[in-house]
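Fig. S4 source data, part A: sequence.
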Amino acid sequence: MTLDTLPTREQALAVLHEWVANPNLRKHCYAVEAAMRAYAPRYEGDPERWGLTGLIHDFDWERHPDLERHPVLGVEELRRQGWPEDVCRAVLGHAVHTGIPRDTPMAKALYACDEVSGFLVACALVTPGRSLDQVEVASVKKKMKRADFARNVSREDMVNGAAELGVDLDQHIGFVLEAMRGIRGELGL
């Protein structure tokens, strides 16, 4: 891959699988990829570019599981590998603590899709069938109010992400849910 050339999905998956052993973290990345691919046409974005940004956004979390290093050191690696700068900046921007502004629709979408996709997985896992098909927006909103449910998911980031993207939170949750349902088999939900 040359500098600023978008890798293929196979190349991106190879990086993800090299860096991430945890199947649940891999599935999280697949979920964010699906949501990003779905959102791209709404903002005149390239579904491949947006999808790969979602796929790779947390690739360094297992090696750098703290706010001091994630995703800053991961993005240093992506830059060494020649990933495009807009992808690198979006990955940096999805983490509020980096201070990198989300100044493109792709960066805003990544921030908006990250936490909500994790929350939707948690919601699916407590349904009788452990299925995304049994998740409804209204139940997601109720669970957002429960501090004891999926406590590691930032509700503030979920709300702020939808606002930054300029979409209604209920519609955003429904949109991401539909995108994730499209890969339910890959997610095991």
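Fig. S4 source data, part B ends here. Residues 41 and 101 are 22 Å apart (CA to CA).
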